Amino acid sequence: MSESVWIIAEAGVNHNGAIDRALQLVDVAADAGADAVKFQTFRADKLATARAAKADYQRTNTGESNSQLEMLRDLELSADDHRRIVERCRQKEIAFMSTAFDVESLLMLEGFNVPAIKIPSGDLTSADLLLSAARLRRKLIMSTGMATLGEIEEALGVVAFGLTMHRPPTRRADFQLAYLSAAGRDALRSNVTLLHCVTEYPAEPDIVNLRAMDTMASAFGLPVGYSDHTMGIEVSLAAVARGAKVIEKHFTLDRTLPGPDHAASLEPAELKRMVSGIRNIERALGSAIKGPVAAELRNRSVARRSLVAARRIAQGEVFAAEMISAKRPGDGLSPMEAWNLIGRRATRDYDPDEQIEP
After folding, report:
1. Could you tell me the pTM of the whole model?
2. Where are the alpha helices (DSSP H) in the chain?
């Protein structure tokens, strides 16, 4: 991952289970200039039981006719599908990522040399998955939707244990001890980025609370980013301006397609505008030093003023306030010198508007 904002174009399950659509999504993400395109890797039977209900937004977007388990089965990608997607990413020179929802899927992704492992908000309390992910010793990006600071801290304890300990945990307190240890905190700083997230699709701006990014950065001393479920691109751009190091945003080929996530996703042109906007904001953030940049220096004499004679002044006259004025260009005596000039005698004659010499 680079020092610039890492932009993850979240394809998720917007392929609707079709490999050809998944490959198109890779093309769109690469064309938009995203750093990575991310899918979701799971086995439905390991993720949900038959009685697991759909979320309200899922019922709205997919109807009531099937269960969450049945919906997930239709959205699975096979190992061969993954290989084809990874190859397409290589051809398009974009990083491949996927969120693993079970340990078996996590280990499969490890074989694809992903640049980072994504922990979804719903699995922030899935200790076994967190521990397995940490022990792969890769960069971790952890979404924190629905979580309290205490839950985030406990999840980071599991990760700290996995990063620093080779033995199995024997009690829950092992995780807190790992989190509080110097080795654990160092390991977290080197490996973990936290994403602020609001687990609602779409999320309205008034529940986003971007300032929570600042709270997490202060509380945990880790890089922070934002997983955006709002409509449009404005909130992602605002998150970058507030210091987000990672932006994750859902996208689709067509928002009107059937499926759980299409309606709250960006279409291709919008994704491209978001990436372009983020890169411009990065450029605009620039340096924290306040001073004239090179481009300003050539404009300084044009925009600023110099002290000039307000009327004809004879040599030997004593300068008074009404005798001097300040006008462009600014290549002479600064108007800040006016008070030092008052009370002194003119060393020569001045015509109106002539710059006064020191």
Report:
1. 0.89
2. 19-32, 44-47, 56-62, 68-73, 79-92, 103-110, 127-134, 149-164, 173-180, 182-191, 211-220, 234-241, 268-285, 294-303, 338-341
CB-based burial, 266-300: b 16+ in 10 Å, e otherwise = bebebbbebbeebeebeeeeeeeeeeeeeeeeeee
Contact at 8 Å (CB) between 184 and 161? yes
**Would strands 306-309 and 324-327 be described as parallel, antiparallel, or unpaired?**
antiparallel
End-to-end CA distance of the chain: 56
Closest by CA to 233, choosing from 199, 196, 200, 269, is 269
91 contacts: CB under 8 Å, gap ≥ 6: none
pLDDT tens, position by position, 25-41: 999 999 999 999 999 99
C-alpha 20/C-alpha 94 separation (Å) is: 17
For residue 185, CA distances in Å to 85, 151, 193, 225, 269 come to: 35, 17, 13, 19, 41
The C-alpha atoms of residue 25 and residue 39 are separated, in whole angstroms, by 10
User: So where are the chain's domains?
Assistant: 6-285, 294-341
Segment 50-105, tens digit of pLDDT = 888 867 777 766 766 678 888 888 889 999 999 999 999 999 999 999 999 999 99
Phi, psi of 86 (to 5 degrees): -60, -40
**What is the C-alpha to C-alpha distance for residues 247 and 263, in angstroms, rounded to an integer?**
19
The strand pairing partners of 325, in sequence order, are: 308
> How far is the C-alpha of 8 from the C-alpha of 246, rounded, in Å?
7
* Mean predicted confidence (pLDDT) in 148-154: 98
DSSP structure class, residue 337: G
Contact of 42 with 282, CB cutoff 8 Å: no
The answer to whether 109 and 100 are in contact (CB under 8 A) is yes
Say how far apart CA 18 and CA 140 lie, in whole Å.
Answer: 28
Strand partners, 97: 38
CATH 3.20.20.70 fits domain 6-285: yes
